Amino acid sequence: MYINIAFCFDHNLIRQVQVAAASLLDHTGTDQVHYHIYCICTKEASQAGDRLRRLVKARDRESSVTVKVVENLYQDAYEVRGISSGAYLRLMLHRLLPELDKILYTDVDVLFRDDLTEIWQTDLTDYVLAAVKGTVNCSDKWEWNSDRPYWHWLEDMKGKYINSGVLLLNLAEVRRRNLEEEWSKWAKERLYYQDQDILNLTCKGAILYLPLKYNRFAYIEEDDYDAYVSEGIFTGQECEEASNRPVIIHYAGDKPWKRYDTNLGYLWWDYVNSQPGLQGMFDEEKARKYHGPTLLEMKIAVAGTGYVGLVAGVCFAEKGHDVTCVDVDEKKVRMMESGVSPIYEEGLEELMQKNNATGRLHYTTDYRSAYKDVDAIFIGVGTPERPDGSANLSYIATVSRQIAESVERDCLVVVKSTVPVGTNDKVEQFIRDFLIRDVKVEVASNPEFLAQGSAVHDTLH
Q1: Are 141 and 135 in contact (CB under 8 A)?
Q2: Are strands 361-364 and 322-326 parallel, antiparallel or unpaired?
Q3: Band of the pLDDT at 324, cuts 50, 70, 90?
Q4: In principle, which of 37, 168, 323, 388 could form an S-S bond with 317, CB 3.0–4.6 Å?
Q5: For 153-167, what is the mean pLDDT?
């Protein structure tokens, strides 16, 4: 038996596709099963072909590797969450492989743990694809996505929305329905989950649902399994199989090659380190040191470097966060970069110099680069008193608009400036009005009550 399987990738994932392919061949249950592996990649990634062929032939001389270098028809498609237009390549398989009527597609951030014969033998008659339901079906996550402008088109997919990381595709049916035309139209829209949203929008009623074990999301924990069962998304047996005997582990979210302690990351590393052809390909020491943007280590921007903003930013950096302080005054920025504080607060300048040196603390006038890819943005600009005694919120309004124009992923905006009751609602509305990307921005309040002279000590302790 020959199974057709496709990987789509660019030059950033050359090493990772080798791990995926090796684990695929190493977990074939019988010598009667072989693979035709199709690598759909950019020109820069085509160098992976020879190494992949050697890796595959060393495991199974009957399996083959075909590399197809392509021009991405979706290169101008919407990009978000740091995911490039390369994600849309899976939507080209029916065109790129005209000789095939059926293929299994998987992302390259996977680890195969068992044989694929059963999934390959799935009957796709009258179906476009077979896939596993995604975590977005859980009520809390569905509600979180519900205010996206296009989400009403997916209302009837609640409990049926699939993850596109593992797809068994009926290419003949894709061609018969001429889905490429619809896919091309949707690719121009601001869809937060990109190609995944497109498949859910256009394949309704033509999706066959697979057991969770075929796309076991590595980040799933016990609470997620409980929600799956209680909400009727998966059965208890399906969850038990996925937890204890997964066929494919999908490292959606945190990647083990970047962060060793990601959930089930040790399985990926154990496999890589057990294979002579893969050993030394990744920097394990660096992965062990990195713990990602967790609650204990986040990427933060602080708007304003007055008393409120600068003290907050420096103290965040001292606690291990990566912090960028934003100010409109270039002279002030250069002063802070040199380790000189524009205000006096006991211990502040010493901490600035320390965290400047570690590379955790940065200063800029370029708000766009500072805000575009952060976990949280703290607003610490001034709110001077007007002649009538009210607070002047013009600086708050300016920063809110800048944030709306700059953010490229979901983030939290925290108002730290001294403001009157109701300001958060205005900030939230302002950001919503000027937001240009399909991202979710939450607004919270963290008012400043520190005393001058002990602000650093009070913040840290």
Answers
A1: yes
A2: parallel
A3: very high
A4: 323
A5: 95
Element (H, E) at 65: strand 64-69
Please give the order of strands across the beta sheet that includes 110-112.
Answer: 110-112, 248-250, 216-217
Is the per-residue pLDDT at 73 higher than 70?
Answer: no
The total of other beta-carbon atoms located within 10 Å of residue 246's CB is 23
Q: For residue 157, which of 197, 185, 119 has the smallest C-alpha distance? A: 197
- CA distances to 271, 305, 331 from 342, rounded to whole Å, are 52, 9, 10
Looking at the chain, the whole-number percentage of residues with pLDDT higher than 90 is 56
Nearest alpha carbon to residue 110 among 36, 218, 35, 11: 218
Q: By C-alpha distance, which of 238, 256, 235, 255 is closest to 246? A: 238
Residue 434's alpha-carbon distances to 252, 407, 442, in angstroms, are 30, 11, 14
According to the model, what pLDDT value does residue 78 have?
59
Report the SS3 class of residue 143: helix
Strand, coil or helix: 274: helix
For all residues of the chain together, what is the average pLDDT? 89
Burial (CB count <10 Å: 0-12, 13-18, 19+), residue 208:
middle
Has residue 294 got a pLDDT over 50?
no
